[in-house]
Amino acid sequence: MPASVLIVDDHPLTRSALGSLLRGNGFDVVGEAADGREAISWAKELQPDLVLLDLTMPELDGLGALPQLREAAPECEVVVLTASESEDNLLATIRAGAAGYLLKSEPPDRIVGFLRGVANGEAALSGAVARRLLERVRVGGSHGHGVPDAITQVLSARELEVLLLLDDHLGTDQIAKRLFISEHTVRSHVKNLLAKLKVSSRREALELLHSARQ
Predict the structure, then answer these.
(1) pLDDT beyond 80 at 135
(2) Is there a single domain that holds both residue 60 and residue 162?
(3) What does the pLDDT look like over 54-71, one tens digit per residue?
(4) Which burial class, exposed, middle or buried, applies to 90 when counting CB atoms under 10 A from its CB (0-12, 13-18, 19+)?
(5) Which residues of 133-168 are buried (b: 16+ CB within 10 A; e: fewer)?
(6) To which H or E segment does residue 192 belong?
(7) Pick from 97, 127, 157: which residue ends a domain?
(8) If DSSP codes are grouped into helix, strand and coil, which group holds residue 9?
(9) Which of residues 158 and 129 earns the better pLDDT score?
């Protein structure tokens, strides 16, 4: 089944172009919204898999709408699509729970590729620097040490986030509530990160993390 997408942008031409691009590449565009308030209403009703969200909009901007979108549709992933290269905006959106931050200057095929990745639980960020920044913001918080390259290079940002929450002694249900995802999705991320780290249990994954930090 194709991933369903809600497009949120205050420019009709942009919404139309994105809709044509995504439909032509196998996505199911279920709705469009021109501002944050409209987006929240549609997200609650439609429960899309993905929300493609502009930042600069009237009524309620993307950053203000993002936490409410996550609450209205807990299973959806929000990807910001913006012209802003501001590091402050990037940090703020990731902290608010965005699964990605893409620039409108990206080629159309790369936008499609990024969104396919998000639909499969990956992060979507324009540029290598943004990817590093995402990892630092989302997984470096409560621990005084960064995550070693040996681990960050094989796990997606969401898998890293789950691993660090496991290290904070959170259970599957607690991680699901923290990340606004289902317990099934948490278990899927755990299964994937165990396979990528070539370990057979959560305990072994955490032992690997701790030894890599030393």
Answers:
(1) no
(2) no
(3) 999 988 999 999 999 999
(4) buried
(5) bbbebbbeeeeeeebeeebbeebbbbbbbbbbbbbe
(6) helix 183-197
(7) 127
(8) coil
(9) 158
Helix, coil or strand: residue 111: helix
Would you say 158 and 196 are in contact if contact means Cβ atoms under 8 Å apart? no
Cβ-contact 43, 6 below 8 angstroms: yes
In a shared domain, residues 111 and 14: yes
Q: Please report how the helices 172-179 and 183-197 are oriented relative to each other, as an axis angle in degrees rounded to 10.
A: 110
What are 181-204's pLDDT values in tens digits? 788 888 999 999 999 999 999 999
Question: CA distances (Å), 91 to each of 88, 107, 132, 138, in order?
Answer: 5, 23, 12, 9
> 192 is in which domain, residue-wise?
140-213
Residue type, 2: P
